Amino acid sequence: MYQNEYEVVFITSAELGEDQYNAVLAKVTETIAKYEGTVLVQESWGRRKFAYPIRKQKYGMYTLLDFVGPATLPKELTRLSRLDDKFMRLVTVKIEDRVDAAVAKEAAEKRSTQRLERLNSNS
Asked: Is the pLDDT of residue 50 over 70?
C-alpha cells in the first residue's frame, strides 16, 4: 500500500526527565501507529541551544521521526502538540507522495546516516 512519507521534528523542554521525554515520544509514535502510519527512522539530536528563548528557556531536546502515513496524520500530530504543553515546537515536512514503505525505509536510513555524519562533524 502506498502512503506519503513525512519527517517531523519536535522540541521538548530540556528540563523534562527521561521518563517524561519517553512518554512524549511514545505518545507521538502511538499516534502515528493509530493512524496506520509506520515510523521508519527515529533520531534523538539531544539537548541543543536555541537561537532565541522559547517560553523563557534557552535549551530544548530535539527529536526527528521519519514516517509514512496517510495525509491526515500531520494534522493530528500538530493537534497533539498543541494539546500537550510538553511540546515546545513541532514541524512536519512532506518528503514524498505515494511511496512504498520498504523503499522509503531504505531512503530514510540513508538520509539519517548522512544527517548524523553532518551533525557529528559540526560538533
From this structure: yes
Other CB atoms within 10 A of residue 7 CB: 18
Report the candidate in 104, 110, 90 with the shortest Cα–Cα distance to residue 5. 104
Give the mean model confidence (pLDDT) for residues 28-42: 94
Q: Are 99 and 5 in contact (CB under 8 A)?
A: yes
12/14 Cα distance (integer angstroms): 6
Helix (H, G, I), strand (E, B) or coil at 123: coil
- Residues in the chain, how many? 123
Would the pLDDT of 28 be above 80?
yes
Domains in the chain, CATH or no CATH each: 2-122 (3.30.70.60)
Tens-digit pLDDT profile for residues 68-86: 999 999 999 999 999 999 9
